[in-house]
């Protein structure tokens, strides 16, 4: 763990590094758990928080924003399940697009239904700028309630994506550190 602290301190300063270490690495000892938490910390700081801030900025500028999270990880991929791009692409673009390439994605009926629903939403959005249609569950825009669609085998609508992390990075960690991370 000294390795992580060694690299956090120059980036964030002593006080902020201690807070970040406490938030993400307290009582974490297994090497894969350390790796998972390191990925989560980096993703929160460099991807998630800027995405939420961008959605808020666009919304406040009177743009219509649709925000989502894919919570489901395919049954065949358990290692590095939080690596968003790798594990989520089949659900965004569909699995088994080329019938000559046999994959296990979609072999479960729920997964096939999930990526078909997601693809319908993307097609609607591409055609009309709105992912909604009468045959799909409602996807609210990201307004003051900050609602977003949660894609999983059961699809739902939630509010304030990762609010506890948003609060941590925007309230606990000094603003000058988060500005450096975003730039």
TrEMBL record:
<dbReference type="InterPro" id="IPR029058">
    <property type="entry name" value="AB_hydrolase_fold"/>
</dbReference>
<feature type="domain" description="Carboxylesterase type B">
    <location>
        <begin position="17"/>
        <end position="169"/>
    </location>
</feature>
<protein>
    <recommendedName>
        <fullName>Carboxylesterase type B domain-containing protein</fullName>
    </recommendedName>
</protein>
<dbReference type="InterPro" id="IPR051093">
    <property type="entry name" value="Neuroligin/BSAL"/>
</dbReference>
<dbReference type="InterPro" id="IPR002018">
    <property type="entry name" value="CarbesteraseB"/>
</dbReference>
<dbReference type="Pfam" id="PF00135">
    <property type="entry name" value="COesterase"/>
</dbReference>
<comment type="similarity">
    <text>Belongs to the type-B carboxylesterase/lipase family.</text>
</comment>
């Amino acid at each position: 763990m000294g390795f992580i602290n060694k690299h956090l301190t120059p980036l964030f300063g002593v006080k902020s590094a201690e807070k970040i270490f406490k938030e993400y690495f307290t009582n974490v000892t297994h090497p894969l758990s350390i790796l998972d938490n390191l990925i989560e910390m980096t993703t929160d700081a460099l991807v998630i928080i800027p995405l939420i801030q961008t959605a808020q900025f666009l919304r406040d500028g009177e743009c219509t924003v649709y925000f989502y999270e894919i919570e489901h990880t395919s049954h065949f991929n358990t290692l590095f399940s939080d690596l968003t791009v790798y594990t989520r692409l089949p659900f965004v673009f569909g699995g088994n697009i080329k019938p000559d390439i046999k994959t296990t994605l979609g072999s479960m009926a729920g997964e096939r239904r999930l990526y078909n629903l997601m693809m319908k939403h993307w097609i609607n959005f591409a055609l009309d700028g709105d992912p909604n249609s009468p045959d799909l569950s409602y996807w609210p825009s990201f307004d003051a309630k900050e609602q977003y669609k949660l894609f999983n085998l059961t699809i739902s609508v939630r509010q304030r994506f990762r609010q506890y992390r948003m609060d941590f990075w925007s309230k606990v960690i000094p603003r000058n550190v988060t500005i450096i991370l975003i730039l």
